[in-house]
Amino acid sequence: MNYLRSISLILLSFLFVFSSAQAQQNTPLITYNTQHHPTLARNGMVVSQEYFASEAGLEILRAGGNAIDAAVATGFALAVTHPQAGNIGGGGFMMVYLKGEDRTIAIDYREMAPKAAHRDLFLDSKGDVDNARARFSYQSTGVPGTVMGLTQALEKYGTMPLEKVMAPAIRLAENGFEMPWALADSLSRFQQRLKTDKATASYYYKPDGEPYAAGEVFRQPDLAKTLQAISAEGAKGFYEGWVADKFVETMKANNGIITHDDLKSYVVRERDAVSGTYRGFKVVAMPPPSSGGVHVVQMLNVLEGWDLKELGHNSAGYLHRLTETMKYAYADRSKYLGDPDYFDVPVSALTDKSYASSIRSKVNLEKATPSTEIAPAPALPYESNDTTHFSVVDKDGNMVANTYTLNFTYGNGKSVAGAGFLLNNEMDDFSAKVGVANAFGLLGGEANAIEAGKRPLSSMTPVFLFKDGEPLMATGSPGGSTIITVVLQTILNVMDFDMNPAAATSSPRIHHQWFPDRLFVEPGHSIDTRRVLKAMGHNVNDDAASLGDRVLGSTQSIVIAPNGILMGAADPRRPGSHAAAF
Length: 582
Ligand code: DON
Prior knowledge:
It is a single chain. By secondary structure, the protein is of the alpha+beta class. The chain contains 21 helices and 21 strands. The strands form five sheets. It has a seven-stranded antiparallel beta sheet. The longest helix has 22 residues, at 2-23. The two termini are 17 Å apart. Mean pLDDT is 92; it is low at 1-28 and 382-387. Bound molecules: 6-diazenyl-5-OXO-L-norleucine. 6-diazenyl-5-OXO-L-norleucine binds next to loops.
């Protein structure tokens, strides 16, 4: 009955939004007459990759918490229910928008290289990159930042005590939860790799080694104890004390290099967000060590010079311009992006509108330019020195866009024995050697070389959009190197094509990253479009499969419609995602 009542309320609000949108002739932001329907609500919303984690955030919103309280609850809950990427052993970025102060804070809790790390860490005796060590050993782990990031965000911008916002995560770990199909399927597919580590095998598989079936109750008592230590003592409960002891024991027993001193020295950085403008919208995104914000703004600057709407959504002409723009951005990424604490990243030069028009003038509108003929800019204009994603919006218009990760699915697959959590393999995001691509095929150089204490370059791109000074959208995605282009297309769908977030999310995407010189095209683009793109000289890879997936990214977005209705879209590309709202 309650269910029916909620459905009818939602339908009513939907009609209300639809009719008021029709009436507001000069509010062409969002179209409602599409087959893609967002989740609608008024009071608050959490959109994440996993049902229980979205519900954990919603529980906190309903209890009167703000967007930051709910985001921290969701962040810790994902570490329990979505171990593929949700984590306390990894790191990430959280963008916070405080409506009352009209201020965005970019919180960098990316992993740091341990003190014993050095430039040639992953080279073998012949000077070649040892990929097994860079990706699957204990040396692949960077010093985790998630616990410090989430606790600090809560302390500074939340309203509730840590104990309260961590309660849902602890409950899920202690009492367990019915294993969702998505996790059961994933653990079953990854068992060969995950069972090579004794602790991981004991945490994620039954005592007889069998994977859990969907619907079976899955408990994580060691993880619950670790979460309790954090809940009681804050970040110290993770970076010091018995959890840190277990962490360092695991490292010592397995040739890892993270020490007590590394854990104690971990710092979160609050950075100035990168911002840009695009056809009257303001775009605010994560700065370095994310490459995402810089390149989203750079690409928007290039694209602003063409009438994309006139070309038509996902037409060959539109996709051609997108692709060529992407190639120039990823070429610059390989040379100019790294940890700004170690390398002077030319953010304002790369996001300069006149630099963008110089790129635009090089684009041949009829033919694809081979990547070999595109290089990073030899010099940039003068640079001054003043320089699983989830989204949450609360009833006051505060927003959080958070992307965090273990790097690979389940990180390096190794767990801290006795403490119940997986380790990241984020050290592979550094350039192990100039000119040698990392796991995502990304090239890099000096700016992203390994150094003690440095943060590896990331593509994670949490983004906010604003229109007429008001918050409009929070979004972001997983997907390694494809994150930047996935986020770009999602926000273009809203800004240029007036799509609601569900339509913006569901539309087929493309990806190009300069090298390899291949245009990855999702299923859903027409065969005619592919044919035209091929005739223009693009090396079309028809199903994006060689990036390890048939689909690109998985965005979790919320749009605040002009009438204040929250519109959420959980990406259908990966199973289990959920918009929780009230
Ligand atoms: O920070 C980065 O760019 C990568 N470590 C992200 C990895 C990722 O998105 C994997 N998920 N699909």
